[in-house]
């Protein structure tokens, strides 16, 4: 390869290596995120007493952000993000809390999750027989 | 009052004073909040290029919490919360940015807001002709 071509190739490679991660192109991540570097993940979780979200006044609401770092008003944001990553963002595939003992009392609580998980919109609603069952359905995600 | 009754009354009053704020009852605020003291306000805002949220992949998503203090991944959380308070949580009543100069280019962006504002569920969607119009529709709320 002539020297000029070699230099050009080297420069191109260097530019790609240096600028690639910041280019916001499809190279870095499946979808551009808040800074063009990652797909956004930002959620609001609510809970309230009742059977359906439509009929329930949300009593508590927390935020959860998982990239670039775990944050939000969720009381255990880091663990909640870890749980979601393990389940691939599938709220029905969360691993319940081991050894939880809940009564069978029927005092339903409904949880909603809305927002975006890894670039995809999330609209989730699930009703639990009581608060204990809700808190135990995931290790920490629903315990807020 | 016999001594026993007086003691019972004192104990009841003490228990009410100590436990009241944590009881999640309707005494403290119009609606119980994250700590039973205020109505929750926690939102996720998204934006993406296109005409309707259903057809758009969210490119950016930020969280916004306004009580007990402003927080979240919104780049100007405190100002965004102040704007929402002024508008009474009405996303159509926000005051636009003064002196914004936007082109008439049609490159639509859609903003969604979901979650809870002062204890009430929020589901809001609005399409703007272009990014500049979106950013100027409110002082800071939609500029993320």
TrEMBL record, chains A, B:
Pfam families (UniProt xref): SSI
Domain annotation Subtilisin inhibitor: ranges: 39-130
Signal sequence residues: 1-28
SUPFAM superfamilies reported for this sequence: Subtilisin inhibitor
InterPro entries referenced in this protein's UniProt entry, alphabetically: Prot_inh_I16_SSI (IPR000691), Prot_inh_SSI_I16_CS (IPR020054), Subtilisin_inhibitor (IPR023549), Subtilisin_inhibitor-like_sf (IPR036819)
Cysteine pairings via disulfide bonds: 66-81, 102-132
Annotated GO MF terms: serine-type endopeptidase inhibitor activity
Role summary: Strong inhibitor of bacterial serine proteases such as subtilisin.
Subunit structure as annotated in this protein's UniProt entry: Homodimer.
UniProt xrefs under NCBIfam families: PRK13244.1-1
HAMAP family registered for this protein in UniProt: SSI
Name assigned to this protein: Probable subtilase-type protease inhibitor
Origin species: Streptomyces capitiformicae
UniProt gene name: sti1
């Amino acid at each position: 390869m002539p020297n000029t071509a070699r230099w050009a190739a080297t420069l191109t490679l260097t530019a790609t290596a240096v600028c690639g991660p910041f280019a916001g192109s499809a190279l870095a991540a499946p979808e551009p995120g808040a800074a063009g570097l990652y797909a956004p993940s930002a959620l609001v979780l609510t809970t309230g007493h009742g059977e359906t979200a439509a009929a329930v006044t949300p009593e508590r609401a927390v935020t959860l952000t998982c990239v670039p770092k775990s944050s939000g008003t969720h009381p255990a944001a880091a663990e909640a993000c870890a749980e979601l990553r393990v389940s691939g963002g599938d709220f029905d595939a969360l691993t319940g809390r081991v050894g939880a003992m809940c009564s069978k009392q029927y005092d339903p609580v409904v949880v909603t999750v809305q927002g975006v998980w890894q670039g995809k919109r999330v609209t989730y609603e699930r009703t639990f027989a009581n608060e204990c069952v809700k808190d135990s359905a995931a290790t920490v995600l629903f315990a807020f």
